[in-house]
Amino acid sequence: MAKITLDNLAHSYLPNPGGEDDYALKELNHDWTDGEAYALLGSSGCGKSTLLNIISGLLTPSQGRILFNDQDVTHAPTAERNIAQVFQFPVVYDTMTVRDNLAFPLRNRGEDPAYIAQRVNKIAAMIGMEAALNRKARGLTADAKQKISLGRGMVREDVNALLFDEPLTVIDPHMKWELRTQLKALHHEFGHTMIYVTHDQTEALTFADKVVVMYDGRVVQIGTPQELFERPAHTFVGYFIGSPGMNLFDAEISGSGAIIAGTQIDLGAGYQPKAGHTQVGVRPEFIQLATNGAGIPARIQRIEDVGRHKIVRLDVAGQQIAAIADEGANIATDTNAITFDPQGINVYADDWRVQPQQEAA
Ligand code: ADP
Ligand code: MG
Questions:
Q1: Among 146, 241, 254, 296, which is least packed by CB within 10 angstroms?
Q2: For the segment 239-263, what is each residue's pLDDT rounded down to a tens digit?
Q3: How far is the CA of 143 from the centre of ligand 1 (A)?
Q4: Which CATH number fits domain 247-359: 2.40.50.140, 1.20.1260.10, 3.30.70.1120, 2.60.120.260?
């Protein structure tokens, strides 16, 4: 197992990159802690696979270094990095049995046959394919083949890291949950460094200790699910994570107050003056409804009952925003204003969070 260090790393697919826009992966410095389970989360095209392939050695970065336990492996071939990688689509040997497919990485390393047999049985149980061990992979469904790919990725206990690139895309929804649970169990048992790429926030938040959020070729935040919820470092994290995502209001900030849609509100903390586009971000969980006009003028557009709670859609100065109310809450149709729970307020300048003055760094 290994700590993985990205030092000044960046990648462009162009031969002569000019500005930042030419980089699929913008400059990045980060240590992936040995033994931690990470999710790499972001929408399609933001650079997740590019980063993963640089770590595994399928791609050589155009700038910077990558180190495993402080050893430079930037130019080391994939085989030398001792990494297991599972891709979005199955990679299996059709003419081999399921058993031989699973045993392959172990036989390749000259492991003891008794150990191989025992390990293959264990992995087959994890992926729910014990009954199919003697079948040829050819003719199996895409779903079953992907389970074999996952199993092959997990079969070795001595890898530096396990990398998963959207591995559950072709798996049916019920099995997805099951396999994710198995991956978590595997992590608890062996403590491998794991990086799990996904564009699905639920997958990321349930799988990982730490979530690395990418946006447009850049890592915008690395944090626990709670940190991403409470203190989104970038507006993208605010609205990409959460259901619905964070509301953003254009605001004039001065000291501990802000003006939103012509109304003065209290931010609950002081802020240094900031240039650029300033906004206040408040998640729907921290918005309260009022009928006495005290707050920012708002009008209810519709109420959605989603089971666990209600989502109230409101119009605030022509902008649609969302508030979350308890399932049993009586929502007054004459609601005419909203207020914010100060705990749930974050301030942004040009999309990056501004730290309030008294908050510890
Ligand atoms: P993700 O995995 O997050 O969907 P990728 O890392 O695959 O994103 O892609 C990031 C960006 O790099 C995208 O704009 C994509 O079009 C571009 N890209 C990916 N692979 C290549 C390649 N082999 N050649 C040129 N551009 C590429
Ligand atoms: Mg990808």
A1: 254
A2: 999 999 999 999 999 999 999 999 9
A3: 25
A4: 2.40.50.140
